């Protein structure tokens, strides 16, 4: 894997695709800058080598071209402070003015281009647009793992214009190395924990994990479609009727391969979808009519904790319940704590997917696990066994 660590950027103009898709409040202030700080090591290395840096990113999902709300100009001051150097801004990501700014960029200087998604061509992976972007630098660096599963102009197509002058940034390299630790030759037993709302979204990852994991722990809303498929009564819990056959197939395949599937034997149930609902505990396959399972129960937590403690490699994607509501956060919280404990005892733990990393941050455990991925969809697709366009474009 070629990374920025292998290259001397002295006198080079590095065009870096970063993921600066940060949340902004109504005053356009950044409320969480972790995506920016994650890219700093790559930027600093290039500047320290004596190169210059042109940064390109998307922000949000602008529908109608340039929009104040989605302008990357709101990031300039904060980025300058973090880098301790001034950052120039081009109010367009293509065009003569922007090109002029990049031509005049001296070694050690930084230029941020306006939001790539102000052009529809970006998401369409348009070749002419990619070619225009390629003119900004003589070296291409991809450090945007969060968009590595997209074949967009700036994440994949552009790499064709940098045959022997492209590489991964530090963040991308770290993401790939950690994901590979799990998917290639994991220390065993390897336990995958898959949760979240919908079974349908997780079928592909489950199908792939059956070929690699020893145990698969299932939690969250998706578990009720499995329990229903096994003949249980799930009341008004989340159900995807059209996925029942697929969940049956998964259970049969796992059985064939000797992969142990854990489903929550009990659940915290509620009489409506609210933190103020009446709450009770129930076997997950005997949930009364009009009650719904919103978290895994105490017995399930104990079983899951034991399986986690016995594992050497653990992947976690998706919460065990509606962890955003305090009455239904316990399952997710206990799993997060047992991952931290397993890590302390020498297991390798990888957490990824938007909601499980949100959960690990909520409980303040992000530094107590081996790695928290910055990629939601990208990590999911990686573990579905797909080749990510952003990775392939650098490797090929
Ligand atoms: P996903 O994006 O598919 O990973 O799902 C995450 C969402 O699933 C979170 O917002 C949770 O609140 C929700 N969720 C987890 N467990 C349940 C459940 N038992 N019933 C309804 N929603 C759930």
Would you summarize the structure shown here?
The chain is built from 14 helices and 17 strands.
How would you characterize the overall build of this protein?
The chain has 396 residues and is an alpha/beta fold. It folds into two domains: 4-173, Rossmann fold, CATH 3.40.50; 186-383, 3-Layer(aba) Sandwich (Rossmann fold), CATH 3.40.50. The chain has helices spanning 34-49, 76-83, 96-103, 120-124, 127-134, 170-183, 199-209, 223-229, 244-257, 298-309, 330-344, 354-362, 377-383, 389-395, and strands at 13-17, 52-56, 87-90, 110-113, 139-142, 166-168, 190-194, 215-218, 233-234, 260-262, 266-270, 279-283, 286-287, 292-296, 313-317, 348-351, 371-372. It has a six-stranded parallel β-sheet with strand order 3-4-2-1-5-6, with helices on both faces. A six-stranded parallel β-sheet has the order 10-8-7-15-16-17, sandwiched between helices. Helix 1 (34-49) links the parallel strand 1 (13-17) and strand 2 (52-56). Helix 7 runs parallel beside helix 9 (244-257), helix 8 (223-229) packs across helix 9 (244-257) and helix 10 (298-309) runs parallel beside helix 11. The model has no long low-confidence stretch (mean pLDDT 96). Bound molecules: adenosine monophosphate. Residues 196-198, 201, 220-221, 238, 293-294, 318-319, 321-322, 324, 353, 355 line the site of adenosine monophosphate.
């Amino acid at each position: 894997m070629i990374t920025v660590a292998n290259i001397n950027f002295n006198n080079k103009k590095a065009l870096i695709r970063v993921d600066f898709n940060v949340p902004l409040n109504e005053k356009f202030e950044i409320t969480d800058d972790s995506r920016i700080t994650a890219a700093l090591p790559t930027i600093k290395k290039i500047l320290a080598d004596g190169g210059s840096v042109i940064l390109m990113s998307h922000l949000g999902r602008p529908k109608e071209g340039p929009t104040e709300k989605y302008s990357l100009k709101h990031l300039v001051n904060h980025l300058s402070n973090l880098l301790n150097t001034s950052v120039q801004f081009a109010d367009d990501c293509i065009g003569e003015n922007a090109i002029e700014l990049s031509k005049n960029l001296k070694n050690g200087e930084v230029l941020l281009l306006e939001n790539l998604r102000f052009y529809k061509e970006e998401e369409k992976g348009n070749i002419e647009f990619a070619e225009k972007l390629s003119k900004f630098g003589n070296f291409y660096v991809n450090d945007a793992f969060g968009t590595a599963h997209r074949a967009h102009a700036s994440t994949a197509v552009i790499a064709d214009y940098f045959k022997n002058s492209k590489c991964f940034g530090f963040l991308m390299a770290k993401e790939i190395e950690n994901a590979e630790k799990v998917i290639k030759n994991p220390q065993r037993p390897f336990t995958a924990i898959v949760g979240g709302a919908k079974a349908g979204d997780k079928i592909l990852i489950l199908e792939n994990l059956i070929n690699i994991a020893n145990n698969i722990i299932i939690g969250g809303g998706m578990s009720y479609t499995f329990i229903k498929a096994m003949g249980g009564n799930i009341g008004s819990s989340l159900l995807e009727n059209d996925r029942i056959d697929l969940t049956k197939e998964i259970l049969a395949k796992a059985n064939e391969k000797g992969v142990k599937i854990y489903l929550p034997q009990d659940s915290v149930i509620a009489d409506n979808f609210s933190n103020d609902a009446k709450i009770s505990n129930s076997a997950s396959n005997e949930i009364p009519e009009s009650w719904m399972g919103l978290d895994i129960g105490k017995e399930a937590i104990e079983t899951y904790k034991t399986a986690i403690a016995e594992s050497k490699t653990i992947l976690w994607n998706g919460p065990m319940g509606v962890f955003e509501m305090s009455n239904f956060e316990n399952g997710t919280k206990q799993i997060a704590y047992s991952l931290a404990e397993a890590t302390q005892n020498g297991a390798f733990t990888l957490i990824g997917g938007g909601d499980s990393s949100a959960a690990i941050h909520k409980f303040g455990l992000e530094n107590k696990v081996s790695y928290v991925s910055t990629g939601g969809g990208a990590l999911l697709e990686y573990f579905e066994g797909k080749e990510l366009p952003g990775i392939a474009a650098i490797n090929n």
